Amino acid sequence: MTRIKAWAFAGLLVAGMSGAALADTIETVKKAVVDKAEKITSLSFKMTSKMETDAGGMKMKMDSEGTYEWMRKDGKIFSRMESRQKMAMGDQAPQDSKTLMVTDGQFTYIYSEAMGQKSAMKQKADNSQKMFGKEAWDQMEKDYNLALVGNDKVDGHDCWVIEATPKSPQPAGPAKLKMWYAKDTTIGHKTVMLDASGKETMTATMTDVKLDASIPADRFVFTAPSGVEVMDLTGGAGGGASASSEPKADEPKKEEPKKEEPKKDEPKKEEKPGIKLPGLPK
């Protein structure tokens, strides 16, 4: 009996050691996330976030919600993010704002409405993949010390919980980040920022995550609202910002004035010599 118990104990010990060897590590999680991300062709989700900070006695609170759509095609990135924010500074009344960001594979357009003002800008698109996948992990490893600290559930998905500590902490930055990566989608479904005291200062959650679903192409087309000029920051001729001639909603195209052609057999009038006034500045 003693010999049987000894063999049984040895078997359990070996099984336990094998299980430990096969347990997830930060390296195996990274490989799973990166391998999955490289195969994703499209992604969409709903997002909500809550932020509350108190820096030097200045309190700030912001709630936001929105949607995000992303697609990779022919080596280009297409995306659309729509969000609404409500922000309060100190004892001031909350202010509502709205943001739309569209990337069409070549340019990124950012449109915002805040405090009664509307503005839009255009800049060159970044077609590198930094939201998730290898580039995102490489950047995280460069800026943070990463550790796998447990498992949890978010929106019904089993998740790995990863803790990120900044290698070079900034006074206004988080002291620590916690991220929940779903084991089935390998997408980050939740992010929490903590300050030096361990208090949560920001929580962002992604729900209704869909991978490789069909997204209509017109979701990645930007049309400026009527009356809104698009500031061009693409660094074209002159190198400065300029008003862009992007299409505007419900705005008819202007017809070019027709040039008056000289009548047939009509002699050209000779200009009399005289003093010509300089043209007025445009």
What report would you give on this structure?
The chain has 282 residues and is α+β, with helices and mostly antiparallel strands. It has a domain at 23-41 and 129-209: Clam (outer membrane lipoprotein receptor (LolB), chain A), CATH 2.50.20. Helix content is 15%, strand content 44%. It has helices at 2-22, 26-37, 134-143, and strands at 42-55, 58-73, 76-89, 95-104, 107-114, 117-124, 144-154, 157-166, 176-182, 188-194, 200-211, 230-232, 242-244. The protein has a 13-stranded mixed beta sheet.
CATH architecture of the domain at 23-41 and 129-209: Clam
Report the strand count. Answer: 13
Rough outline: globular
Strand order of the largest sheet: 7-8-9-10-11-1-2-3-4-5-6-12-13
Distance, first to last CA: 103 Å
The whole-angstrom Rg is 29 Å
Label the structural class. Answer: alpha+beta
Fraction of residues in β-strands: 35-45%
Number of helices: 3
Give the CATH superfamily of the domain at 23-41 and 129-209.
Answer: Lipoprotein localisation LolA/LolB/LppX
The run of helices and strands is: HHEEEEEEHEEEEEEE
**Mind describing the biggest β-sheet?**
13 strands, mixed
The CATH topology of the domain at 23-41 and 129-209 is what? outer membrane lipoprotein receptor (LolB), chain A
Task: Name the CATH class of the domain at 23-41 and 129-209.
Answer: Mainly Beta
Summed over residues and divided by their number, the pLDDT gives a mean of: 81
Portion in helices: 10-25%
Low-confidence stretches: 1-22, 268-282
